[in-house]
Amino acid sequence: MLPDSNKKTVLDPFGTSVVADYERLYMEFGIEPFKPFLSMVPNPSLYMRRGIVFGHRDFDRISGAMRKREEFAVLSGIKPTGEFHLGTLMTAKEIIYFQQQGAQTFYCIADIEAYEDNKIPFKKSEKIAADNVADLLALGLDPKRAYIYRQSKEIRVKDLAIIFGRAVTLATMKAIYGERHIGLYLSALIQAGDILLPQLEDFGGPKPTVIPVGVDQDPHIRFTRDLAQIFHRKYNFILPSSTYHKLMKGLDGSPKMSKRQMNYFTLHDKPETIAERISNAFTGGRATIKEQRELGGVPEICPVYEICLFHFVEDDNEIIKAYNDCKTGKLLCGEHKKQTIDAVLKFVMEHQREKMKFIDKAREILQVE
Ligand code: SF4
């Protein structure tokens, strides 16, 4: 079902967020458009260039630090609930990008949130986390220049959460996150601790910090920015900055990738599973080849185009060509799906091989068996 564009958008980091119109988020949530910043970023990422990163809060601090080569940090993370998929891949690429631009880098394994939100026992999330970190290293994160940690083992994060808890009422939590069990409110406080961790004296003190996330995570950013202000006197925190990327659709065209609907694939699925899911994907194509030749397709609603745009076509000219060829009916869906399957399988096979080299290193970093 398509989202109702008249409804107010709900951004829920613990539930399902469906965004019908990204432009409306500027008005509804005070998110700033990213586009005006593009020319100020020395070496914009693929996501920035293609408008996938569409919004931000206080990114001027980060672009300024990048231009002047001053100190800044990036923090992102993963909830260890399963294998890397195209959504978590995006966050990983963003953190690697900022590391390559000189950011002090923090990657958090949100195992407390996985426990509170997904009931994943810590013993199980340990294994998943080691696998996720191996993915991250295989994608190019330099572990020598990064602090990778599990929330449950990072006492400074937990201490911050305890301190922040003093300034937050139940009414505030309900207003931000809705009626939820206390464990989720606790995990939100822990996340605030994660976001502000890079600014503690142990890591060199206050500094501009960017949190690149999907826009559904904005409530955590707003909450943490409020806390940073409340505790400014004690810690001298600089309000954290954020960038927001668009959320990927499911391969069936529904607004979200979902395990239950099997409308996505992971980087560790079998090649035949991946090929089958892409072959069966919804497209923006027409009912017949003749119609498509005459009228062209609709790449704007097409998940096949989307996975190419987000992940599998590096060259900007190539993606522009695919868009134009679709629009003019030159490119047909069968042919495009085949090209996409080839590109995805090439990437996935190489990635799986590369990842094997990093499993031991990932276990060592997280100190798990
Ligand atoms: S040609 Fe490609 S981009 Fe266009 S609708 Fe078909 S699959 Fe989607």
For the structure shown, list the relevant keywords.
single chain, 369 residues, alpha/beta, Rossmann fold, 2 domains, 49% helix
**% residues in beta strands:** 5-15%
Structural class: alpha/beta
CATH topology of the largest domain: Rossmann fold
Say which molecules are bound, naming each kind only once.
Answer: iron/sulfur cluster
Q: Give the overall average pLDDT.
A: 92
CATH superfamily of the largest domain: HUPs
Order of the strands making up the biggest sheet: 1-2-7-6-3-4-5
Overall number of strands = 7
> How many angstroms does the end-to-end distance come to?
44 Å
- Helix count, per DSSP? 17
* The number of domains: 2
- Largest sheet composition: 7 strands, mixed
The CATH class of the largest domain is identified as Alpha Beta
Order of secondary-structure elements: HEHEHEHEHHEHHHEHHEHHHHHH
Poorly predicted runs: none
Describe this structure in words.
- Helix content is 49%, strand content 9%.
- By secondary structure, it is an alpha/beta fold.
- Strands 1-2-7-6-3-4-5 form a seven-stranded mixed beta sheet, sandwiched between helices.
- α7 (155-165) crosses α9 (182-196).
- The longest helix has 24 residues, at 333-356.
- The relative contact order is 0.13.
- Bound molecules: iron/sulfur cluster.
- Iron/sulfur cluster binds at residues 283-285, 297, 299, 302, 304-305, 326, 331-333, 336-337.
